[in-house]
Write a structure and sequence with these properties.
Layout (H helix, E strand, L loop, with lengths): L1 H16 L7 E15 L2 E16 L6 E8 L4 E10 L3 E7 L11 E2 L9 E2 L7 E7 L5 E7 L21 E8 L2 E9 L9 E12 L3 E11 L3 E13 L2 E11 L15 E12 L4 E11 L12 E8 L2 E9 L9 E10 L3 E9 L9 E11 L2 E9 L8 E12 L2 E10 L2 E11 L4 E8 L1 E2 L8 E2 L5 E11 L1
Antiparallel strand pairs: 1-2, 1-30, 2-3, 3-4, 4-5, 5-8, 6-7, 8-9, 9-10, 10-11, 11-12, 12-13, 13-14, 14-15, 15-16, 16-17, 17-18, 18-19, 19-20, 20-21, 21-22, 22-23, 23-24, 24-25, 25-26, 26-27, 27-30, 28-29
Length: 471
């Protein structure tokens, strides 16, 4: 990190010198909290500041800024970023890695929600700079320091060092085409360099009837990497048409590709219709053609869906779908739903068949009901994963009463797998920042996974006074 930080600080000082009248803007964000908690195990108090960030931000084209984070509870602080601009470029320096491009230095999913959110180079790149070149509008340069501690001002001996073993990426847009090129070292040994490099391009074309998205990549890794994708979305009257094509070779060989980098070779096209017969009745359907692997084009599927819906105070719908109407005509999934909604109550029913022909009695059935009367809101639900085993039912019931604007009373019960759980709670909003909570029961999220569990042998109670504010 030192070699990059020294260079950035030198540029920072240079920029500040030529920004004689700079008046950076100081800002801060964070939150403060206090809590008093009492339960069966004892009494605890807690409080402090959290997520506090202090920033000195540029307010002009030739000004500098720096951002720090503070953890007042742990008594620690750290550096977030350094930003400065002049008439020629704007530069941001930060520790760690950044995401550059889905093929080169992309993002990966770290929390299992299928959304790439963390740089692949996290833990490898020690720091980075992002430079916007003002003299070439739209030109962006990203550098990540993958091998640090190389610069030594006390010697000219380069033994044991190759000159380039980091990450350099360039982005530029021209005529609506977004270009990105990168070259980077894939090993962290300062004496060797295993380079990968490549370029990508993407463009969206808009028409009156639809749009086309194009993307291509050419790169050098352990083997040549190349590929092209094309996607069309269009509407023609009541017909919606979608079509996708991709042909990518060896993308998996790119060391720092993101989770969303396209791979494989496939083609699909789907025509869908949604037609309103009357104000309350509509029918819909779709017909598709899918080749999952273009290297074996004779292996294709023809998915089909059919459906009808009725909508007013009373709603109803039915749908049928085939994953492959030609290859597996009897493999049908189906669903039926019905409901009624009024000012004071609602009812709902949903039934699903994973295999309507092969297992017609294996029905997933959900029944729900709700009521709202003045200050009282209640709901009940019965759920069967397989109605052929009718005794395997999950039942939920909940009630909320709001006798005063600042006071909420709740109660809930659940039955599942032969086990019964319950809870009762109270929330009092004392003012905009202060709340009081009371709880008792066996129905709560014990393992912190976001799912309410039945803890039939571990009833819990607590009282909690909380105050918090954000700034």
């Amino acid at each position: 990190m030192k070699k990059l930080l020294v260079a950035v600080l030198a540029l920072f000082v240079f920029s500040v010198i030529y920004a004689g009248s700079a008046t950076p803007q100081v800002s801060w964000t964070g939150s403060a909290y206090f809590s008093l908690g009492i339960d069966e195990k004892g009494v605890d108090i807690d409080g402090g500041l959290s997520s506090f960030t202090l920033s000195v931000s540029p307010t002009g084209s030739t000004e500098a800024g720096v951002s720090f984070w503070f953890d007042f509870i742990a008594g620690t602080w750290g550096f977030n970023s350094l930003t400065f601009e002049n008439d020629y470029f704007g530069l941001t320096y930060a520790e760690g890695a950044v995401g550059f491009n889905k093929f080169f230095g992309g993002l990966t999913d770290t929390n299992g929600d299928y959304v790439p959110d963390t740089p692949v180079l996290d833990g490898i790149a020690e720091d980075n700079i992002d430079v916007n070149v003002k003299v070439v509008d739209g030109l962006e340069i990203v550098f990540m320091d993958l091998v640090s501690g190389e610069v030594d001002y006390d010697t000219g001996d380069a033994t044991g060092h190759v000159w380039f073993d980091d990450f350099l990426g360039v982005k530029y847009s021209i005529a609506g085409v977004n270009l990105a090129a990168a070259i980077y070292d894939t090993d962290t040994d300062p004496s060797t360099s295993t380079l990968e490099f490549g370029v990508t391009a993407d463009k969206n074309l808009e028409f009156d009837f639809g749009s086309v998205a194009l993307e291509a990549v050419v790169a050098s890794a352990a083997s040549p990497v190349y590929g092209l994708s094309e996607a069309f979305n269009g509407t023609f009257g009541i017909v919606s048409l979608t079509q996708n094509f991709k042909w990518f070779e060896n993308v998996n060989l790119l060391t720092y590709k993101g989770d969303d980098a396209p791979t494989g070779k496939a083609f699909d096209v789907t025509a869908a219709v949604d037609y309103g017969v009357t104000d309350n009745v509509s029918v819909n359907g779709s017909l598709g053609f899918v080749i999952a692997d273009l290297t074996t084009p004779s292996n294709f599927t023809v998915p089909v869906t059919l459906g009808a819906d009725f909508a007013s105070a009373f709603t109803a719908g039915v749908s049928l779908s085939w994953a492959d109407v030609l290859g597996a005509a009897t493999a049908i999934t189906a669903s039926v739903n019905a409901g009624y909604e009024a000012d004071m109550f609602n009812l709902g029913l949903t039934a699903k068949w994973a295999d309507l022909v092969g297992a017609p009695s294996a029905i997933e059935l959900n029944l729900t009901a709700g009521v709202t009367v003045d200050m009282v809101t209640g709901s009940v639900g019965l759920y069967w994963a397989d109605l052929s085993d009718a005794t395997n039912v999950v039942a939920d019931i909940s009630v909320k009463v709001v006798p005063l604007d600042a006071l909420t009373l709740t109660a809930a019960a659940k039955y599942a797998g032969g086990v019964f759980g319950y809870n009762a709670g109270l929330t009092c909003v004392i003012d905009d920042n202060t709340t009081f909570n009371a709880f008792y029961g066996t129905l709560y999220d014990k393992d912190g996974d976001g799912v309410i569990d039945i803890n039939d042998t571990d009833a819990q109670w607590y009282l909690k006074l909380e105050w918090s504010t954000s700034f």
